[in-house]
Design a protein that fits this description.
It comes from Engystomops pustulosus (Tungara frog). By secondary structure, the chain is of the alpha/beta class. Helix content is 42%, strand content 17%.
Amino acid sequence: MDQTAKILEIPVVVTEQYPKGLGPTVPELGAEGLKKYSKTCFSMLIPEVEKELQRTPERQSVILCGIETHACIMSTTLDLLNKGFDVHVVADACSSRSQVDRLLALSRMKQSGAFLTTGEGAILQLLQDATHPKFKEVQKIIKDPAPDSGLLALFQNQNPLFS
């Protein structure tokens, strides 16, 4: 999502959960050069992030991904929903230490009004049309299949949590 955000000039906000104790954002996530806000609360809606959101008052939607779906992503989602935002959670770009925590958090966010999507699904919704001027550039990012996120097994046999 980070590469697509750069190409489409979509603002990205990165928070780090207590980097002093847990360590900084790993380079593999592609967040080098982006400002990172340190936090100890689970929600990323800290005063600095709220100021970032206020810079574009016309923004109605937020796309979320990250670590500890059942803590940080869920807390942020619920806070954003309470503030009237449409929240799109990129399920295959969210993780938890346990699949049970991840699954139940995704289910609760959906029940609360968030939209669950995949990385490729979110990217294609941002583009809306193959005639988008940056489609070919973004298409290179999604050309190869995404790695297995472990979610497919959760949806087999019509998982009742997502019905």
